[in-house]
Amino acid sequence: MLATPFTIAHNVTDGTGQTTTQYIGYMPDLIQLLTDKIGFNATLILAPSNQTYTQNIQLVNTGVFDIIVSDVTVTAARREIFSFSNTIFDNSLSLMVMKTPDVNIDILGFLKPFSSKLWVLALGTCTYAGILMCFIERTDNESY
Asked: Which structural domain, as residue segments, surrounds residue 52?
């Protein structure tokens, strides 16, 4: 995996003019740690970028490589053939969406279409109409 910060390839020229590729980053450091702890000899070979994960896995199956350190997906079919370590780096996928602004709810928002003078006029008109109806109906309905 040739990607920052996982593996970074640098061409280093020594005093004799010999150019070698030096790998730095998370994956080479992990392999060096395993080499120090377990005591095996590691030769880092960077897989070509035009190879698929399945092709890289077949290189382990045929014995070309002993291990692959990569973000290979663990599937049931692959688990039948190979042993996988625990996850060494969380490479989960996420969705990113725009944060919605906080919504302020105005309880009296239904009053905003009209001005306060118009609402007072409407309230006054309803009150006047109610009083007028009371006087008109009073003469027709004696029980009130």
From this structure: 8-81
Residue 19 vs residues 8, 66, 68, 132, 133: alpha-carbon distances, Å: 16, 26, 25, 105, 104
pTM over 0.70: no
User: In this structure, are 13 and 75 located in the same domain?
Assistant: yes
CA distance 71 to 57: 12
| Domain end call among 81, 100, 126 | 81
- Distance, CA of 124 to CA of 117 (rounded, Å): 10
Which pair of tokens denotes residue 51? Answer: 């190879």
pLDDT digit string, tens, across residues 72-115: 788 888 888 888 888 877 766 677 777 777 788 888 888 888 89
Secondary structure of the chain in HEC code, one letter for each residue: CCCCCCCEEEEEECCCCCEEEEEECHHHHHHHHHHHHHCCCCCCCCCCCCCCHHHHHHHHHCCCCCCCCCCCCCCHHHHHHCCCCCCCCCCCCCCCCCCCCCCCCCCCHHHCCCCHHHHHHHHHHHHHHHHHHHHHHHHHCCCC
Is residue 61 in a domain? yes
